Amino acid sequence: MDTDKYNEWFIMAQKDLRSAKILFDHDADNEIVCFHCQQTLEKYLKGYLIAVTGELQEGHNLLKLCKKGMQHDNEFNQFLKDMAFVNAFYIETRYPALDPLVVSKEDTEECFRIVDRVLARIKELIGS
């Protein structure tokens, strides 16, 4: 059973972000780095939603989670395009495919920029 304590979601999100940075700094596959960025955003969004609603949200879709966030802070609408971008790295990077997703260094750096912007907004809204 997943916890409904938002700060614990933030702690787990930070682990994913730390992992992404370490992997990136050591030239790991960009696909795996972006997967960890997706996980970071998912956990931060779920933590934020727990903080403002008291309820744990189901699912992994960043767009859906972001839209739920918009119900409490309309400024989340600025992240919708970003969430669609990062959402691609949840499934496509985890399993072998006939036509695998290839992630560039620039796309990976964009994932980190998106994470930074979303985290800044969440911290602004509810603190660290």
UniProtKB/TrEMBL annotation:
Residues 10-118 form the HEPN domain. PROSITE patterns: HEPN. InterPro entries: HEPN_dom (IPR007842). Pfam families: HEPN (PF05168). It comes from the Bacteria. This is HEPN domain protein. It comes from Candidatus Desulfosporosinus infrequens.
